[in-house]
């Protein structure tokens, strides 16, 4: 009982104390709430998994659309017929890519706006370079905010 | 251990740095294609492409300097972060964040000093 009181009044300092808290039946959630320390639980892991699959499919979709558009344009545009065909091809691809990236940024914004501090900056970054915006999103949502101390 | 607002501030800072640098790079490459008509000399085209690459590298150096300041401030033990940032800045920045997280977690799990 003394040990339990000791643990519940002090922040667990090392792995051993965390293990004691397990032995004494203090849930991780209880410790997290009490000390403002966050540990992953099943719900977060499921959310992380869903988010990973969603964004992986989105990035894959953007690549496939871009690839198919490239092939389609090469088939459709007659490069011998007019002078600026190459330039037109590049322009169409660039515009399509910008639109796809904007859609990606919008989807990122929908996920960010709920509870994140950088709800505008990360989607903007995602709209410019999707993979970088996505890395920042995952870092802020699932890593940084949850390992640091909660300044209550 | 670093507090949550400091982490969030770091994310904001580096996201802003990346957004600004990317936008400038886009503007430069856009102006390159806008102001040239495709009939320039090969030398001019090469020069323009070299300038674009050089500007990207200058941005990498600036980011690396900012990152070095933060690495020293947070006393992170990482040898190759600056080098990675010089090659590709988003990767360097993300590795920097991962290093912070890793350090925070390992500090948390270290045995308490004997009193």
Q: Overview of this structure, please?
A:
The complex is a heterodimer of chains A (152) and B (115). Helices cover 75% and strands 0% of the residues of chain A. By secondary structure, chain A is mainly α. In chain A, α4 packs antiparallel against α5. The longest helix of chain A is centred in the middle third of the chain and has 35 residues. The N terminus of chain A is likely disordered. Chain B is 81% helix and 0% strand. Chain B is elongated, with a radius of gyration of 19 Å. In chain B, α3 runs antiparallel to α4. Chain B is mainly α and 115 residues long. The mean pLDDT of chain B is 84. The two termini of chain B are 21 Å apart. The chains are: A mainly alpha (152), B mainly alpha (115).
Question: Summed up, what is this model?
Answer:
Chain A is an all-alpha fold. Helices cover 75% and strands 0% of the residues of chain A.
Question: Would you spell out the secondary-structure blueprint of this structure?
Answer:
The complex is a heterodimer of chains A (152) and B (115).
Chain A: H1 2-9, H2 15-23, H3 28-35, H4 42-76, H5 85-112, H6 121-128, H7 130-147
Helix pairs in contact in A: 4-5, 4-7, 5-6, 5-7, 6-7
Chain B: H1 4-35, H2 42-74, H3 81-87, H4 89-109
Helix pairs in contact in B: 1-2, 2-3, 2-4, 3-4
Pick out its properties.
heterodimer; A: about 150 residues; mainly alpha; 7 helices; elongated; disordered N terminus; B: about 120 residues; about 0% strand
List the helices and strands of chain A in order.
HHHHHHH
Distance between the termini of chain A: 28 Å
Low-confidence stretches of chain B: none
What's the total count of β strands of chain A? 0
Count of alpha/pi helices of chain A: 7
Cα distance spanning the termini of chain B: 21 Å
CA-based gyration radius of chain A: 24 Å
Helix share bin of chain A: over 70%
Q: Percentage of helical residues of chain B?
A: over 70%
Quaternary structure of the protein:
heterodimer
Tell me about the biggest sheet of chain B? none
Structural class from helices and strands of chain B?
mainly alpha
Strand content of chain B: under 5%
User: Describe the biggest sheet of chain A?
Assistant: none
Task: Using a beta-carbon cutoff below 8 angstroms, give the protein chain pair with the largest interface and the number of residues from each chain.
Answer: A-B, 29 and 32 residues
What is the number of helices of chain B? 4
Shape of chain B: elongated
Low-pLDDT segments of chain A: 1-9, 36-40
């Amino acid at each position: 009982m003394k040990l339990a009181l000791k643990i519940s009044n002090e922040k667990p300092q090392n792995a051993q104390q965390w293990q004691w808290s397990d032995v004494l039946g203090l849930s991780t959630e209880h410790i997290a709430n009490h000390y403002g320390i966050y540990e992953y639980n099943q719900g977060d892991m499921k959310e992380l998994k869903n988010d990973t699959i969603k964004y992986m499919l989105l990035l894959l979709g953007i690549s496939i659309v871009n690839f198919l558009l490239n092939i389609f344009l090469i088939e459709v545009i007659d490069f011998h017929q007019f002078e600026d065909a190459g330039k037109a091809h590049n322009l169409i691809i660039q515009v399509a890519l910008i639109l796809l990236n904007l859609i990606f940024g919008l989807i990122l914004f929908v996920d960010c706006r709920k509870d994140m501090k950088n709800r505008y900056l990360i989607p903007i970054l995602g709209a410019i370079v999707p993979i970088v915006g996505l890395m920042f999103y995952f870092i802020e949502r699932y890593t940084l905010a949850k390992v640091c101390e909660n300044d209550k | 251990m670093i507090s949550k607002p400091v982490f969030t501030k770091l994310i904001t800072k580096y996201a802003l740095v990346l957004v600004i640098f990317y936008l400038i790079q886009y503007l430069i490459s856009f102006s390159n294609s806008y102001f040239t008509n495709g009939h320039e000399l090969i030398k001019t085209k090469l020069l323009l492409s070299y300038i674009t690459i050089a500007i990207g590298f200058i941005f990498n150096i600036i980011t690396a300097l900012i990152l070095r300041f933060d690495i020293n401030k947070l006393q992170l033990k990482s040898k190759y972060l600056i080098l990675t940032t010089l090659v590709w800045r988003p990767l360097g920045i993300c590795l920097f964040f991962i290093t912070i997280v890793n350090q925070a977690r390992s500090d948390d799990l270290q045995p308490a000093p004997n009193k």
